[in-house]
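Appendix C. Worked example: Helix-turn-helix transcriptional regulator
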Amino acid sequence: MPDAAEAIGVSERTLQRAVQRTIGTSPIRFVQDLRIERACHLLRTTDMSVETISRKVGYEHPRTLRSLLRDRTGKTTSELRGGDRR
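Step 2, the predicted output written as C-alpha cells:
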C-alpha cells in the first residue's frame, strides 16, 4: 500500500479509504480473499503440498494459510482437498 499510494500521489490512508469505498472491503481483506480463492483452487486441482501452495499464494508460513482457510471456509485443508489427498 505505501508504494501504491506514493505512486499515485495520495496518502496511504486515502488510498485505503478509496479501495474500501470502491470494492467494499479493506485492501488487506481483498488480497487475502484472492489468496484464499487461489489456494482453494490449488488444493482441489493439484497434489501440491500445503507448504508449496502457501508460498505460491504469498504466505511464508503454511500455518497462516491453514488458519485463514479454516476461518474463512470453516474447513481444513484436507476437507478442501476432498479428504483423501495430502
